[in-house]
Amino acid sequence: MASHVRLDGRKTTETRPIAISFDKLARADGSARFSFGETTALASFSGPIEVRLASELPSKATFEVHLRPLSGVSAADAKSLSSAIRSSLEPSLFLNKAPRTLAQLVIQSLSPSRGASWGDSLSAAVINASSLAIVNAASIPMRGIVCAVAIGSLSDGTLVLDPTDAETAKLRGTGCFAFMFADDIGEAGTEIDCVWTSWRSIVGGYDEKELLRAKEVARVGARTVYSAIKKSIQGAILGVGTAEQTRDEIMKTDESESSDDDEKMII
Amino acid sequence: MATVTTPITPLPPAPTSKLNHLSQDEQDALKAAVFQRLHPRAYLEKFLAEDVRPDGRSFDGFRDVSVNVGSISTADGSALVRMGNTTVVCGVKAEIAEPELDKEEEGFLVPNLDLPAMCSPKFKSGPPSEEAQVLSDRLNQALLASNLLPLKTLCIEKGKAVWVLYVDATCINYDGNAFDATLLAMVAALRNTTLPKATYNPEIDQTLCSRKTPRVPLKLSPSLPISMSFGIFDSKFVLADPTSFEEPLLDTTISIILGDSNQIVSVSQFGSTMLTVEEDGQDTRRDALAECIEVAKARRAEVANEIFT
Predict the structure, then answer these.
(1) Which residue of A32, B42, B125, B133 sits 20 to 30 Å from the alpha carbon of B304, by its own alpha carbon?
(2) CA separation, residue A237 to residues A21, A33, A34, A240, B31 (Å)
(3) Between residues 215 and 244 of chain B, which touch chain A (CB distance below 8 Å)?
(4) Which chain A residues have any C-beta within 8 angstroms of a chain B C-beta?
């Protein structure tokens, strides 16, 4: 299985080259661009900002995610993905630190979505760009960083990380996994928590073992994404000055988590 | 000298005194209902601490399901599903259309779920809510992933005419877990669907259906997808088949779709599945996904026996 060679010469457990840039969209609090090879997404984050009265929440910030495809208006598939993104990023944010406000994430896909639905690698790029934009804004304290990768299963059972469009046509099963990475929590060092699973068969079904195997391969893949993200933050933001705060806020998770529990009990 | 021990003053007459015309049981029920409205989280926590859910189910208990097929005579196939109080009605309507140029032999399957204002005060009238759109898209993905209806079987004449199946579901009473109920209704409705015999006539470039020849059922794959959903509350409790009261309080939702012989068609999980369990005074964390899959397998067999045999 390990000897499987892919069309572009990658190993099965290798993603396409990851590129990260912070675009400094002038009117947003934070923005970032993330790509796996050609698959690119651009995310912008604003918050805490004023919230519409109808969606105001008394105990936490309202978290909105808007996803725009490369062409046309966003349809049901984009709505579905944006709700998945919201639920996978929400565990990483301390939204209760800014009640009665709005945290708004707008993501623009810079790659065409294949056919009727968003590809899994595009979904992964979208999530990674979103995490980076929120870190770049540094306005909402975070528990960890959510990183996602796409994964596919070939007809012989080989799992391939970050499948390209050409490979996707031959897949038997496909999916996307997102993990939340939090450094310095507990004794185990980095804590990794799966926050989004979407694993579907294309031909026939699969069994539990394959799901767990896929999740493990994805976990390793997500770790490479995490290192890339960490490196980009250290390189691009820490030099700027204000970003000291970002890092502090990410690191402060221990304290914030305990205070979060207190609040839960009061509510 | 004044008396030292004052008798305990009775509690000031609570506003409930207006409710004196009600029996004690009715007053208690009213108090519980008010508590549930004002503090839904605390209300649920109190039940779960006693190892039971507000509706009397165990944590991994599903609600009773009943399916009634063919009740809409104007549709080509239909089903009505009740899952506890959640009621979904689904009708299949067939039309003839031209196929897409790059998929000349494939028909179309268009599932849609409507959550009208009628089914719950949660929903507003007007254009489909975000929740309805998200559910419709997930249902579409589930039907595609399970390959229940191979789209090539909907071909009438290659490149000229194919069937379009509109699988429209409407929720008429919403009490949570609409996804499971709707998928069940759609599968049951597709099983109930029959199509007239259609022939394409190249001379007049039209497709003709005959009323005289008997209608034929769809060529469905024998592996019927059934979805089982779970929710995680407070990183501690895994609740199967959540109701509309439990749903907004959940941190995580998991949907597991199983086909025949427990083949997994799709697993989707939104939020973390790690549970914090107290063991020997220490908090340990474990993943709940594997146990959900086990519960789902047992449940799939039950539902399939009851409904699809």
Answers:
(1) B133
(2) 11, 14, 15, 5, 55
(3) 223
(4) 76-77, 79-80, 83-84, 87-88, 90-91, 117, 180, 193-208, 211-212, 267
